[in-house]
Amino acid sequence: MTPPPPPNLLHDAFSADFEHELRFTRSVLDSSNPLLEDLLGWDEQGPRPGLIAVVDSGLHDATPGLSKAIEARFADPALPELRETIIVPGGETAKNDSNVVESVLSAIDLNRIDRRSLVAVFGGGAVIDAVGFAASTAHRGVRLVRFASTVLAQLDAAIGVKNGINRFGKKNFVGCFDVPVAVICDEAMLETLSDRDWRSGYSEAVKIACLKDAPFFDLIEKNADRIRERDIDASRPVIHRCAELHLHHITRGGDPFERAEARPLDFGHWAAHRLESITDFETTHGEAVSIGIALDTMYSHLAGRIERSQADRVVEVLRRLGLPVHHSALHGEAILNGIEEFREHLGGRLTITLLDDIGRPVDAHEVDPEVIARAADLLA
Ligand SMILES: NC(=O)c1ccc[n+]([C@@H]2O[C@H](COP(=O)([O-])OP(=O)(O)OC[C@H]3O[C@@H](n4cnc5c(N)ncnc54)[C@H](O)[C@@H]3O)[C@@H](O)[C@H]2O)c1
Ligand SMILES: [Zn+2]
Question: Burial, 95: exposed, middle or buried (Cβ in 10 Å; 0-12, 13-18, 19+)?
Fold first, then answer.
């Protein structure tokens, strides 16, 4: 008797290994600094890989001689060969203007950057997100090395394994997950930041402390005034610890590509992303996150969770860091659309992170607009 044909169904599970290289250094482009050789040195048996450098215009304008320094460093035959340096608009324009992605794709094409070659991006979180998207989609993935040049990029954005651009007035509407070859955080690059961009980064540190590490919150609280005043000895441990917490969330948290329903790192972000759009990106991401954290912390309190004294500590530390905790747009209808946009972005059921206490997050699946309004009133 002939056996029955196999069922028309095949199922295999598979996994792939990733490594995440994060390095803190100072003056990475100095020829005396061995970091680049260590990370990007190539096997001299094969052809020398090519590289294009893409530089954030804000960083470029604030750092005379940067293009020359990139040129000089990659003239070293031990490193990939620099084929072109392009400057792209810094800030959220990088994610709002589709010409930026197009110009990077075009440079990848014209310079024959293949999957063995590299794109090196130097900039803030927005430029890194947009350039990363171009690199991840060209040839279905050209290798990317990120040189993070803002506080927010060094402690959060550049460490993430996602990139993307804004479309239809919505943040990160188009994008993908990808793991960079390396993330390099050069402390010297932070010196040219404006005070506003310096301060903007620390809301993400307060965020992750509230989610994962109460003693880290205490450290930020203790040093908030010195951090605001740009004391690097007080700021460095906060940047490093925050980066480490973000890294471990990705590498050890069990959900690097965010398939699960909960998105804990997006605490405060449903309102933040909406606020950025409503204000036409006049509010920086870090400022919007600060306002979003303050709102969701007060909401948590009004919803019977975190105690008022603890909620006040969160709001106060944001204020002391020089960050805003309120915006008039919190009182309008428009902000509430952020909840639906967030649900769509997650897919499926709405899951918002609230706080039972500092260091004790909790998932919520419903949000009461009246309580949001009361929380906004408390912050006004
Ligand atoms: N992919 C992720 O996981 C992730 C995580 C968090 C945030 N983000 C994104 O990051 C973006 C915010 O990043 P950001 O806070 O770095 O701001 P940003 O990229 O908008 O940069 C802020 C400003 O600083 C300028 N700049 C950059 N480096 C400089 C330097 N060293 N000296 C002087 N000026 C400099 C830029 O030109 C810009 O004008 C948002 O788009 C946000 O959505 C992404
Ligand atoms: Zn963020």
Answer: buried
C-beta 93 within 6 A of ligand 1? no
Q: Quick one: fold of 22-192?
A: Rossmann fold (3.40.50)
For a ligand 1 pocket test, name from 251, 285, 293 the mutation site with the most ligand atoms within 8 angstroms of its C-beta: 285
156 Cβ inside 6 Å of ligand 1:
yes
With a CB cutoff of 8 Å and minimum separation 6, the contacts of 22 are 159, 182, 183, 185, 243, 247
Q: Is ligand 1 within 6 A of the CB of residue 197?
A: yes
How far is the C-alpha of 156 from the C-alpha of 247, rounded, in Å?
Answer: 9
Give the tens place of pLDDT for each residue, 119-167.
Answer: 999 999 999 999 999 999 999 999 999 999 999 999 999 999 999 999 9
Length of the chain: 380
The H or E element containing residue 341 is helix 337-346
**Would the CB of 152 count as within 6 Å of ligand 1?**
yes
- What does the pLDDT read at residue 27? 98
How far is the C-alpha of 126 from the C-alpha of 129, rounded, in Å?
5
Query: Would you say the CB of residue 91 lies under 6 angstroms from ligand 1?
Result: yes
Asked if residue 83 lies in contact with residue 50, where contact means CB atoms within 8 angstroms, the answer is yes
Residues of the chain with pLDDT below 50 are none
Integer Cα distance of 76 and 69 in angstroms: 12
Report in angstroms the alpha-carbon separations of 319 from 32, 65, 331.
40, 36, 20
Structural domain boundaries of the chain?
22-192, 195-229+240-379
Which CATH superfamily does the domain covering 195-229+240-379 fall into? Dehydroquinate synthase-like - alpha domain (1.20.1090.10)
The ligand that comes nearest to the alpha carbon of residue 172 is 1
